[in-house]
Amino acid sequence: MPIAAFAIFGWCMANGGGINGMNIASKEAEAAASTTPLGWSIMSGINVIMGGLSPMLVNQPDLARYCQKTRDAGPLQGVSVFVSSVVVFFLGLASTASMQAVWGEAYWNIWDLLDSVLDHHWTPGARAGVFFLALAFLLGTFATNFGANSIPFGSDMTGLFPRWLTIRRGQVVCALLGIAVVPWKLMANAQAFLSFLGSYNIFMAPLCAVIIVDYFYVRRGNIHVPSCYDGSKHGLYHFWSGVNWVGCLAWILGTTMGLPGLVGEYQPQLLTDASRYMYMMGWLLTFVTAGVVYAVGVQFVNICVFPAGRGMVKTWEWLAKDGREGFFDDERDGQVIYAQSSPVTEKSEEEVKMGTKGDNGSL
What we know:
There is one protein chain. By secondary structure, this protein is mainly α. The chain contains 13 helices and three strands. The protein has helices at residues 2-15, 27-35, 38-58, 60-64, 75-103, 110-120, 124-160, 167-180, 190-218, 245-256, 259-266, 273-280, 282-297; strands spanning 332-333, 336-340, 351-356. It has a three-stranded antiparallel sheet, with no helix packed on it. β1 and β2 (336-340) form a beta hairpin. α6 (110-120) runs antiparallel to α7 (124-160) and α7 packs across α8 (167-180).
């Protein structure tokens, strides 16, 4: 797919207006600049890009668990995702602007652009090129949706409804919902597509903030692996009736900050300048709001970082150091790893076998 993207970009540059097509001094550009100040336009661009990245930020654990090495999911991956997203946006904008200078119409959808290529260049070479480009984008779209949407959705559904859904069944549900929401309407024009990408951050950025604050600030990087499989009401991650209400409150308040602008995107007559600018900085605004609310909220409740009876000092990633891998030393018996199904009491001291540890140190 990267080869196909750069190929269509090169063709548009050679057969269109080229870089000159991106004329920021044109009447259309001046009209757009007079409507929205440059600073807010930049903020809106950041908002759109982060909106597209937000699902991947939240779904990282669903994919990172397949990594064989620690460095497979780290700074290199984060930098590559951000850089590639900016490059893809530039390729699309430059290609569209270049051909608009020649054809007089902007094709923001790759399929419309390829269709227009055939309208203007009905030759065997053009037809073959369009076929292979379309095939590359088709396979790329399928792989992207499978990795970024299907697998995370299936994993989340097994967590919500473990009695009825597996990862495979969750993927089937995701495919059916993907058709039910008529996504082709979101690709009707550039404005609708950008509005959709911008709406992502209203819901995903607060969730991302809660996850980050909980890991780095509240737990200081300590995850007790056996407790992840403890579904009892005494479980470390059971919270209150199985729900982290502080996190829910932070998410709701963070989302609320961006809702007025989201409504205004589809009902412009209801949109004020203040709400429009709030929406342009929606990712940062909702992220910071949810993060601050959660950080303050946990000061008024008792969120346990270690299981009951473990009077440990919260040091950075203590459970991940010295080969602990999320376990306390007394939870291992040779090559067999055990975890208590509930805190040890006088009535029950039963231990549940969690799994075996192989020679390579992996569970």
